[in-house]
Structures are given as structure tokens and as C-alpha cells.
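Request from the bench team (R.T.):
"We need a structural guess for the complex before ordering more 2-acetamido-2-deoxy-beta-D-glucopyranose. Sequence and SMILES attached. Just send the C-alpha cells back."

Command: build protein-2-acetamido-2-deoxy-beta-D-glucopyranose structure.
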Amino acid sequence: MYNVCILQILTVAVSFSCKLQNWNPLTDNHVAALILARGGSKGIPLKNLVKIGNRSILNITLNTVLQVDFSSVWVSTDNERIFKEAAYVNVHWRSKESATDDAPSILGVLDFIRSHPEADVIALIQCTSPFIKKWYLMEAIWWINQGAECVFSVSSVYIIKHFVTVKSLHRSFHLRWLETEEGVQPLNFNIEKRPRRQDWNGELVENGMFYFVRRSVVTRGFLQSTRYTEANVKNV
Ligand SMILES: *[C@@H]1O[C@H](CO)[C@@H](O)[C@H](O)[C@H]1NC(C)=O
Ligand SMILES: *[C@@H]1O[C@H](CO)[C@@H](O)[C@H](O)[C@H]1NC(C)=O
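Reply to R.T.: structure attached below.
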């Protein structure tokens, strides 16, 4: 029996699709980091400028992003104050349609790639996760350079096994229910065969820290693709 205890919840890149057939690493490798930072959000206005200590979360995130070898770094915004805060990187003025309160991120990314034909891969980074580490992003770039079509972050944990700390995927074993008009229905299990913990591998939980995605996936309207292999996940 292993001596296993959960130390700290961390977040890393772990999930991606299989390799592309017609991908050329010499020509198709402009990786553009993109932060979508709208001004007028209904929830918390200018939430990207919220401060931790003396620095805005946008400043903290950009500081990390600038330590990583991206081909270009962009903030896409519709707001003057965010424009000023992004003084050290490129700014893309976001179109009105893509910057409404209910516009999903994919619209912001599509708006960006329309005027940036050079971007082969878009690394969408959320600055509402200011605890992002540069090596998460470096790991993701590494997978992209191996030909991955998309890389996104899910929660992971550090555990101690035999007194050695190892990084491992955090798997959720929650049995989830959906409320419907008629009552409730199980979402991820069968009530006649309720799984015990040892019966399944649990679920991976996206943490929204980043999404690296190839242009071809974005133009189809997606930030992710679902093809991936377990072997790849284990290697991270
Ligand atoms: C934060 O900024 C203010 C004004 O610029 C300064 O007086 C203060 O020392 C700063 N605090 C920290 C923790 O850097
Ligand atoms: C973050 O803010 C500090 C203090 O104002 C500034 O010196 C630094 O250049 C900023 N970093 C970025 C990436 O904008």
C-alpha cells in the first residue's frame, strides 16, 4: 500500500489530440499568445485590471507569458485602460460583435485570426488564472512542436509516493446529476451499476488556464479537438 497524500492542487497541461498528418514544423510554427481582455464585463468590470498586491492580474500574467518563447504576444481588447496596461506587448482591437458580454471566447479568437494570417497556433491564455507558471506554457509549446493539434490545461495534483513527490492527473470521482423538468438524471454513470471508485478512472477536469489550438481547428469553430491518446497524457 502506497503512502499517498494530496499535497497541493496544481494545474498543468495534460490533454491533447493526436498528431496532424500534414503539419510542417519548419513553416507552420508561429505560436501567438493571446489574452482576451474585454473592458466591459457585467460581472466584474475591468476584471483583468484587478490587483494582487500592487500589480494587475494582466500585468502578472503578461510577465509570465513574456518569459516564454512565443512567436508573438497579443492582448485583444476594446478598452483604453487595458490598452495602456498592455504597453509591452502587441494590442489587437477587438471587434464590437466579438466583445459583447455573452460572446464566447471562440469569437474573440476568430476575430483575432482574421487579421493575423501569420498565426499558425493560438495560445489562448486566461489572465483570470494569475498563478499560471511559465513551465506549463513551455510544456504546452513542446507538445505543439511534436505536432499536437491542441493542448489544454486540466487540474493535476502532487502526491507523495514512497516519500517521492510525483505529479499526477487529478481525477474527479464525483457522481454527477442533472436537474430536468421531469426530475433528475445521472450524467456520468448508470444507476443500475453505480461505479465504485476502483471501477473507473474518474474524470479529468478542465481548469481553463490555457488552450493552445491550431488555426485549422479554430476556423472550424472550435478551441479543442477530442482525439487524444492516453499514452501522451501519461508522459506529461
Ligand atoms: C504599491 O504602490 C504604492 C504606490 O505606488 C507604494 O507606495 C507601495 O509601497 C507599493 N507597495 C508594494 C507592496 O510594492
Ligand atoms: C508590470 O508592472 C510593472 C510596474 O508598473 C512594470 O515595471 C512592468 O513593466 C509591467 N510588466 C508588463 C509585462 O507590463
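Two things stood out. The longest strand covers residues 150-161. DSSP finds six helices and 14 strands in the chain.
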